[in-house]
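pls design
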């Protein structure tokens, strides 16, 4: 960021500066912002959406609240999660973050 600022400050001010250079520089900033900020976030949201749509009975999950459980039943937008023996919670699909079997493979 400091390099960009120094390039901007070093540019000669006056009549010789082209307005097209300012436009190109602004366009370059927008392109960089898109590829480093927006595109990865959209990709992550798409992966999470496909994961939630593919949930099945028996999958081990983690909710946004940090509750670990196993899916007992899947309906339209709601999942029945077994947390312990005879303890079941009804959780919205949007509250499911990731698969807990990924964590057990890392240990």
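designed seq:
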């Amino acid at each position: 960021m400091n390099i960009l600022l120094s390039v901007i400050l070093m540019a000669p001010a006056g009549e010789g500066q082209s307005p097209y250079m300012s436009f190109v520089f602004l366009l370059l900033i927008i392109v960089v912002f898109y590829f480093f900020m927006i595109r990865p976030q959209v990709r992550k949201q798409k992966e999470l959406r496909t994961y939630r749509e593919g949930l099945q009975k028996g999958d081990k999950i983690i909710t946004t609240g940090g509750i670990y459980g196993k899916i007992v039943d899947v309906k339209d937008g709601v999942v029945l999660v077994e947390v312990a023996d005879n303890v079941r919670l009804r959780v919205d699909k949007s509250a499911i973050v990731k698969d807990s079997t990924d964590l057990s493979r890392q240990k």
